[in-house]
Amino acid sequence: MQRILLGKTGIEIPRLFIGTGTSDEKDQCIQARVKPELYAEILRDAYLNGINFWDTSDDYRTYSHLKLGMWNIERENLVISSKTYAGTAREALRVLNQSLADLGTKYLDIFFLHSVDSLQGYEKRIQDVLPGLKQAKEEGKIKAVGLSTHNIHVLEKAVEHPELEVIFSNFNRYEIHMDASIQWYSRTLEKGFRSGKGILVMKTLGEGLLRDRVKESIYYNLSKPFIHGVCVGIVSRQDLEKTLKVLKEIEEESS
C-alpha cells in the first residue's frame, strides 16, 4: 500500500483509507448495524493489508467497532480520525473527551469540524468552535485540526484558512453528491494542496451508487496528484476483499 505524508501535518497515511459511516436511504449509518466484533475483524484484516487509517465520527455509532479493532495494535501504528457537529468550543471539547474515552485512546490523529455545509455555518464554527480544537491540539489530544464539507463555497474558504490543516471533501468523477463541477472542485482542492493542506476525499463510490464501477472510481480519485487520501466506505468483508483486489490490480497496472 502506497503511503504519503498528509500535507504539513507530519502524519503518514495510506493512499486509501476506510470510512465507517456509510449512509443508507434513511441517512443512517450502515456499519453501526454490523456487530462490533465482526466489524473489528474487518478492520484488523485491513490493517494487516496496509490500511491503517480509519475514519469515524461521534454520530456514526461505530466507536465500539474501532475500539475492538484497535485492540493489541500499537496506537502509533494507526491513524484515527473523528468529527463533531459541535457549535461551541466547550461542546467540541466535551465531545472530544467522550470520543477519546469511548475509543480507548489518548489522542486522535485528526479531529474535524463535521459537515460544515453553509457559509453562515462556516463562519460561526470557525469563530466559536475552532478555538476549542486549537486548545485540544495544544494539550496533545489531537494531532491535526480539520474540516469536512460537501459545499464548494465552504471548500473555497477552508483551503485558505491558515489554521485548518486537513480538508475532507466529497469528490468523484460522476459528481454524485457534489454541488459543483469536478473541474471546480479540482481547482479548489489543488489550491489547498499547493498551500500544504492535507487533502482527503470521500463519496468515492457515491454512497454506493458507483459500486458497479469500483475500480474506475477508486483509480480516478487515486490518480489525482492533489489528493493525499481516498476514503472508501467499507461495510462488509466482501467490500474489503473487493477493494483490496482493485488496489492490487491498479498497482500492477501502474508498475
Would you mind describing this structure in some detail?
The chain is α/β, with parallel strands linked by helices and 255 residues long. The protein has a domain of 177 residues: NADP-dependent oxidoreductase domain (TIM Barrel, Alpha-Beta Barrel), CATH 3.20.20.100. Helices cover 40% and strands 19% of the residues. The protein contains 9 helices and 10 strands. Strand 1 and strand 2 form a beta hairpin. 43% of the residues are buried. The mean pLDDT is 97.
Mean pLDDT: 97
Question: What kind of oligomer do you see?
Answer: single chain
How far apart the termini lie comes to 13 Å
CATH architecture of the domain at 3-13 and 81-229 and 238-254: Alpha-Beta Barrel
Order of helices and strands: EEEHEHEHEHHEHEHEHEH
Coarse structural class: alpha/beta
CATH topology heading of the domain at 3-13 and 81-229 and 238-254: TIM Barrel
Cα Rg: 17 Å
Overall body shape: globular
The main sheet comes to:
8 strands, parallel, barrel
Strand content range:
15-25%
Strand order of the largest sheet: 3-4-5-6-7-8-9-10
CATH homologous superfamily of the domain at 3-13 and 81-229 and 238-254 - what is it? NADP-dependent oxidoreductase domain
Stretches where pLDDT is under 50 for at least 5 consecutive residues are none
Number-wise, the strands total 10
CATH class of the domain at 3-13 and 81-229 and 238-254: Alpha Beta
| Contiguous helical run count | 9
